[in-house]
Specification:
The chain is mostly helical. It contains nine helices and two strands, in the order αβααβαααααα. The longest helix is centred in the N-terminal third of the chain and has 39 residues. About 80% of the residues lie in helices and about 0% in strands. Helix 2 packs antiparallel against helix 3 and helix 3 runs antiparallel to helix 5.
Length: about 290
Amino acid sequence: MADQKKGKGIPSDGTMSFFEHMGELRKCIVIIACAFLGASVVGYFFAPQVTRLCLDLAEGYSFVQISPTELLAQYVKVAVILGLVVAIPVFIWQANRFAKPGLKKSEDRIFLGVMLSGVFFFLVGAVFCYTIVAPLMLQFFLSLNTIDIQGLYSVKEYMNYLIGVITAFGIIFEIPVLSCILAFTGLLKPQTMMSGRKIVIVVCFIIGAAITPTDVISQLLVAVPMCLLYYFSILLVKTIARFRREKHPEEAETEEDEMETMKAERKSRWERAVAMAEAQEKAEKES
């Protein structure tokens, strides 16, 4: 019988039966659930202060609750979010603990790095939205009131809007992590990202215009970080592609063939365009 790690009950060679896997998975889920519930209970005592910080973000707004339980519901919602945030390190620890026996040492480092990077970039996006983008958007919406209509805003609707926007920015900032995952699996290559960068830049500005007010500054605050994240992702994917070529030399030959094909296609398109322009110019001269 395989030796087991002290205090963990996981075989050192990673060999476990189906039921042993299920037992370890249940143990991980229980630990994560307990951490989440405990953090949520503690977070409830800080929920009023956090809610107050969110409301203070909307300078010039007046808030009301339209039902007796509305404010209580927001405290519970904030407590759950705080519980999720606090439980993230426990989740990463347990996920890494569960997956580690079945991974190589290099794969274990990659797995842990991807999870930590995902949390880091999500938090950066959330903080960026809370400190810069959200206040600008809220002030823009307030400036639209040019006919002196008294605004009384529901705490529930405001909190839903703010949480939704912050979550959206957190997900947007996951672009580098998602790119790394696809690059490690071989589904994304730097040539693909480089060839599509112009389209991506246009899409970033379209998204910036769609989720922000119509002023240029707010659009730039959304579009420019997205573009920078994309170019940063290209650098990461290039690094991963270089690492994969060292480990799998046969992939390097395939990529070189694809690069030659892409260059030939671009060259042929350019030659066709030049030929058409010359033919049109010749026809105009003859006429």
